[in-house]
Design brief:
The complex is a heterodimer of chains A (206) and B (142). Chain A has 206 residues and is an alpha+beta fold. Chain A has 4 helices and 4 strands; from the N terminus they run H-H-H-E-E-H-E-E. Chain B is an alpha+beta fold. Helix content of chain B is 43%, strand content 24%. The chains are: A alpha+beta (206), B alpha+beta (142). Chains A and B meet through helix 1 of A and strand 2 of B.
Chain lengths: 206, 142
């Protein structure tokens, strides 16, 4: 499986996020949704790759008999296979689990800007007459709540997409985020429903 | 502890304007007279900019030692590959110590520029950068 340089990966993801921010005009909620959608498209493809790689390398996953089992596969095998890191599974109940990520390769260089400052824009940063570090924008620039940005929201989309392909409809969100000041990244995954196996209505026998 | 020394002025200057400024060694409780000194320091730095540009084109190294001198104060500069200048106004520090200090600032600056939210040549507002620069200054310059 081809490997990518961690720094290149992180920088590419960083420019993706900043481009999204510019494209969606600093609308943080919309950006979180878009990152989730992008992750979903990735996840839908990841699951097949994971299962086939495991088949090839002789790692036996087998059908999961409990949600805990699924959680373990996602955390220990899935994350290891694609990102080279493992995460811990905690708070396992019948319908939910939490993933703790201690290291996040996507955000190694990232520091979120101060909330309340200006957004990212293409115009020049402004004329400064005074010396000294200038603060955010002057009047007229939108005040942004950067702390609402879920920088690594793509993970949530990936998990959601992958599990949907194996008939588990889940909802994923970031409960705690190191970039916002917490001590660990926590993704909460909740099982909404088990989808019925089989093709859609148009393929049903008459 | 060393004797009372004048505060050192450190500037990161981009293409058009200063991006970051810090004063090291400032003892609190020195009011109005200290302010006047600061203005003068800024003017000295500003006037040294031309000399920095001249030296940068002549000298191939990133670390240009003493670029300018004004009375007892010296301006030392480090120029990065993108012509962002780190300038320090001081009174007779060791060249090698300054080289190590500037290299450390250079590493901090590179890490900052890898932040996707930091646009090149804009004022530096990161508190982390600020804290680390001050820590480096404490380590090497006092």
């Amino acid at each position: 499986m081809p490997k990518a340089n961690t720094e290149l990966f992180a920088l590419t993801y960083g420019s993706l996020v900043t481009e999204l921010i510019k494209d969606y005009d600093n609308d943080i909620d919309e950006i979180n949704k878009q990152l989730d959608r992008i992750g979903y498209s990735i996840g839908v493809r990841c699951i097949d790759e994971l299962l086939s790689k495991c088949e090839v390398n002789g790692v036996d996953i087998g059908p999961c008999n409990s949600f805990q089992n699924t959680a373990e596969v996602v955390a220990k095998i899935g994350f290891r296979c694609f990102l080279g890191m493992t995460c811990d599974v905690t708070n396992v109940t019948e319908n939910s689990f939490s993933l703790f990520l201690y290291e996040n390769p996507l955000s190694i260089f990232v520091e979120l800007p101060e909330s309340g400052g200006g957004g990212l824009n293409d115009d020049d940063g402004g004329l400064n007459d005074d010396f000294g570090a200038a603060a955010g924008g002057s009047g007229g620039i939108k005040r942004l709540e950067w702390s609402k940005l879920k920088y690594s929201n793509i993970y949530c989309g990936v998990i959601r997409g992958a599990l949907e392909q194996v008939n588990m409809k889940v909802s994923c969100n970031f409960a705690r985020d190191v970039l916002r000041g917490d001590d660990v990244n926590e993704i909460k995954v909740e099982l909404k429903e088990m989808l019925a196996e089989g093709a859609g209505e148009e393929y049903q026998d008459e | 502890m060393s004797a009372q020394q004048a505060p050192l002025l450190f500037l990161v200057v981009g293409r058009n304007e200063p991006l970051y400024c810090a004063e090291f060694g400032k003892t609190p409780g020195t009011p109005a007279t200290a302010q006047t000194i600061s203005r003068q320091q800024y003017i000295i730095m500003h006037s040294a900019l031309d000399l920095v540009d001249k030296c940068a084109w002549v000298d191939g190294n990133m670390y240009l030692r003493n670029v300018d001198q004004y009375n007892h104060q010296q301006v030392s500069t480090f120029v990065t590959a993108c012509h962002v200048k780190f300038m320090l106004l001081h009174t007779g520090k060791n060249d090698e110590t300054l080289r190590v200090f500037f290299n450390e600032i250079y590493e901090l600056y590179t890490k900052l520029s890898m932040n996707p939210f930091y646009k090149f040549d804009t004022p530096i507002t990161s508190k982390q950068f600020d804290a680390r620069v001050k820590a480096a200054a404490r380590r090497y310059l006092s």
